[in-house]
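Why predict the complex rather than its parts? Because the way molecules touch one another can change local conformation, and only a joint prediction can capture that. The input here totals 1372 residues.
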Amino acid sequence: MPTNPDWVKALKPATDGAALLKKERAKSDLPVEKLTVFLFGEEFLETRRNILKVLQSEKIFDKSANYYSGRIQRFEAALARAKRLRMLAVEHDWSLEDHNVAVDLLAEPIPYMLHGTMFLLTLFNQASEKQAAKYFMKAMNYEIIGCYAQTELGHGSNVKGLETTATWNPDDKTFTIHSPTLTASKWWIGTLGRTANYAVVMAQLIVNGENHGPHPFVVQIRDMKTHQPLEGVHIGDVGPKVGYNTMDNGFMLFNNYKVPHEAMLARYSRVDPETNTYIKPPSAALVYGTMTWVRSTIVWQAGGVLARGVTIAIRYCAVRQQFQDKDSESPDGSETQVLDYTMVSYRLLTLLAATFALHFSGKLMMEMYQKGQRNLSDKISEKEKEEILSMMADLHATSCGLKSLASTTAADGLEQARRACGGHGYSSFSGIGPLFADYLPNVTWEGDNYMLTQQVANYLLKTARSVRMGFPPVNDTATIFRYFYDRAEMGCAFDILGSDADIVAAFAWRSSFLAFNLLDKRDSEKMAWNDLLVDMYRLSKAHSQYMIVKNFYDTLNSEETKKSLDEKTLEIMWKLFRLYSLNTLESEASEFYASGAVTVKQAMLTRQSAVMKLLKEIRPHAVRLVDAWDFPDWQLDSALGRYDGKVYEDMFRRASELNPLNEITVDPYPSSTTIFKSTGNLKSKL
Amino acid sequence: MPTNPDWVKALKPATDGAALLKKERAKSDLPVEKLTVFLFGEEFLETRRNILKVLQSEKIFDKSANYYSGRIQRFEAALARAKRLRMLAVEHDWSLEDHNVAVDLLAEPIPYMLHGTMFLLTLFNQASEKQAAKYFMKAMNYEIIGCYAQTELGHGSNVKGLETTATWNPDDKTFTIHSPTLTASKWWIGTLGRTANYAVVMAQLIVNGENHGPHPFVVQIRDMKTHQPLEGVHIGDVGPKVGYNTMDNGFMLFNNYKVPHEAMLARYSRVDPETNTYIKPPSAALVYGTMTWVRSTIVWQAGGVLARGVTIAIRYCAVRQQFQDKDSESPDGSETQVLDYTMVSYRLLTLLAATFALHFSGKLMMEMYQKGQRNLSDKISEKEKEEILSMMADLHATSCGLKSLASTTAADGLEQARRACGGHGYSSFSGIGPLFADYLPNVTWEGDNYMLTQQVANYLLKTARSVRMGFPPVNDTATIFRYFYDRAEMGCAFDILGSDADIVAAFAWRSSFLAFNLLDKRDSEKMAWNDLLVDMYRLSKAHSQYMIVKNFYDTLNSEETKKSLDEKTLEIMWKLFRLYSLNTLESEASEFYASGAVTVKQAMLTRQSAVMKLLKEIRPHAVRLVDAWDFPDWQLDSALGRYDGKVYEDMFRRASELNPLNEITVDPYPSSTTIFKSTGNLKSKL
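Output of the joint prediction:
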């Protein structure tokens, strides 16, 4: 790499970023560490610190080449890191959660990911005892590397439409797995493209000519020694993507590929090899469980992911100075910190409030889910059981809506944070662009964010229908039933500027208004389902926003919170609650008017006085509030978001000292077709 | 590259995309070619066809490796293409516009770009005759390759804050160009990183200790033979970015670098070497011109860029079938085309309407600008001149607001279109992700989209102040003055569902309401400028939306349009006008209520009846409407957006036949630190 001459090395930036951040931190007395402990718990923080130390001590996890490397180099590095992570997990006796913490710090998808999650999980849940004995421990020990092959080139959302078939052969007691068409090709399958030698394959089970729908089969797909695909299996990587390029998402086709009877995962349903008949699962599985958990995790993570972008943007906008405020008559002529412009703080502090809102909702929902699961396993009456199941169904619907809202909020919020960084936000060194690119699949997978809202609305419609039919609430834990039921008592003019409880009530009111409005359209006006999809999307959003506002409110009101946080911190958290709620209300104002929840005057005052005032009150604490998220610099890998504020030094170092493009000298003239005059030791780098 | 076995080659997709698109095109009788000619003119289309033929006939422009290549390979290919384009321009006698058409078809930024635009333009506008003789023809002939070095590491938006200095030395009649700090480093300079050997450098001119502000200097920066940076100049590429990676954006620092007197571009201002004094420009330059033109171009291009994404998404969503509509009882059990779901058509057809809206506004504004310029050069009275200048100032303010709105609409719209493609939208092969990434700088450069709205609001405030003070309108061509002035006559209850003219009037009403509201806050309540930035952003958006709606309306009402388009096409264009306008109105409903322009009831009906009905009426024409944009497949380079609908075949071909990652075989076990088992001929590819 060409080195910087001495006169360049001697230069200092005109802006002292370190001093500016120091001043920022001095402006506020928010006890950062206490808030951090409140957010994550001491145990988790301790674990994270220890794992970080381990990772930073090994050269293989050095990130300095990441932003410059092409696809193949990045995949190569990621696989090497995945291998090392696995060895470290064994060495340090890491749990699955510990391993996930390490991947989170590494901040890149690793090629083993689907082995460690969906492949193992499916074996665990769906394998018979015999199958578990054969595969599970081998998979746990990484003697076989698996993936989960469900989505196809032609079908993603509609699982029932999968085209891959598994036909039972009574003669030799085998299944034939087959791809009848090109669109039957498995597609997007993580870990499959280059890495896995086993797969759980979802295929239409056909017995005696009858189709019993998609079922899982565990199948060897590559040779254990040569790693070549087996005869009759065609596999490859699906190619480059917007992000996630350290992962080998794969495709796979089968040509009448025979697998033994034991390939079909037989814990619940199976084919009897004696009678050649299909045996149904004893009861439709209680699917709420895992899915509620997965979606609540996405909500919880959405807060954290967004917080990474917001941390970077807020620190940089506190360091970046540009222009003087038009009315300012600063005596020293120094420029204004960009974060002081209300157009910037309006964008970034509202996102900051959203990070906490999402974090609390995800956390609360996971706790509720776990509590429900625990209570179910106790010895309880049928009536109690029914109540808990009703609450769990409620929670499931809400988790679908929140998954949609939270991942959209995080994805769009990251891009907003990137733009708030101005020109330098476009550099990979900002760290936000690459994070956004890797995060984007979240708006599509685990239920596309638009599609999913149909499920939410469907559940809300059913609940509204029950309420209208006069059924009493099952119990107080079924939130949706409760707030639909209570709407008559609420009234519909809320003091959103004077009472926090009224803010929550206004959100409940608007959501139930939309729900009953939709019910009229569907049941009375008999409108077509397809003509109501936009209303359903809006209803799901309204319900989810209500839940987030309610969860934020409940969290701050809880005894645990009051015990954990000092008064000053709690006061700022309440301000963040109001900022999130009132800003959301204002941006959805027309639905709040239409429902009669607020007046036009109230909504105007909301932004013009309440929100703008909150921004000013929160502004001095902005840097400390992002500090509370406690992201190590190593995780953020951002020149703009450094804890120490040395933004410009880092931008320059990454451009001039690490950038391999600077090793080449070109021939610039169009009359010559030669491009490179010299390439230095570039080849060795590629 | 591993080849697909014969059994794979024999597979067909279950969905016949070609048949589906054929059916789509048969559903509508919209005369596509006529609409295309109306949009672009026959001459332009002829040119584009010819240039496309030239490009497609040369292997150097083959795009098949683009999506797989790393930064250095992409830069290398782009420079090779830039060179060849230049030679072709000479060979075929291409104008600058022709050259731009070629780059647009190539669809990647080329490393010569800033030479061909800003470097040449600045020499043309600001060089003295002597300087022009020395540099201009050389630059035109690419004997010197230049760039335009303004932005610095520490300053982008605030040009007055630049830190690079150019100090006049009376003794030897030279300037010393110097970077006093690290943040003085030039940054983001296109074409500088590896390619240019000359630069126009903007630096603070210091004469006799007095700073006269930023001035341009033309400076040699690299050796003409070795291409190494000259002594005292330090240059490099700034590193990888979200997109735009075929361009070598560079940094540059100067260490007391001496340049001759003639380096300062001296057409308007100069340093007299005899008296050692600074000579000011005779009058503040009429800067409106170029900037209005550049911004109108961004508006016009925004329509086209967005249309590329919308073309891809609409074609793919017409081919993709998923689920059955919940109420449907389709006898053949076939799945529904995704585009038929209202949640999808709502998102994509409103974007489709926006493409036309932006296109017409950009076109109309460029025409108005050119007309104004032409009329100015005629022999006209002082009064007429004043009128034209007033109109041009108006146009300038509007072009700022429209640049902000249009580029945000296009950038966000591209991402919306990508998400509407579901999972496959995430593949690079969709073509939308890479386009989005390359387009993003538009929201920041030529005036950051948030910052710029202050300028717009400032102009609108001044105009509102004049109106309030009772000044009569200068003339009818100054739109802003006119609609502010006329607001009293408008009344404030508009029949937006019954009258197209009323739709336009409602937008005018809301914008002028916001303007006078802001004027009250600033002038009567004496609110701080900084506390009004969010209001200014909203006002600018409101004014810009009004202008787009008005321009769309005026375009469809013009005699030329009525002559060019048949009745049926015109009818569909009016529907697109209504869809764009009413959907915009509904999404900004709270401002329309607050201003009294519409009632809550009207706004609810707008979406629930008018917009949903328009979607159904436009839906059959969707594919033909995107066909009218006439993008060659070669330009889109998208598996999903193919004209022939062969989506799945192309996805599979790009993954299995072109993807270099599939050349490697890995060792998958964590116990081994080896990654690659074999690399085939991969190295030769890197």
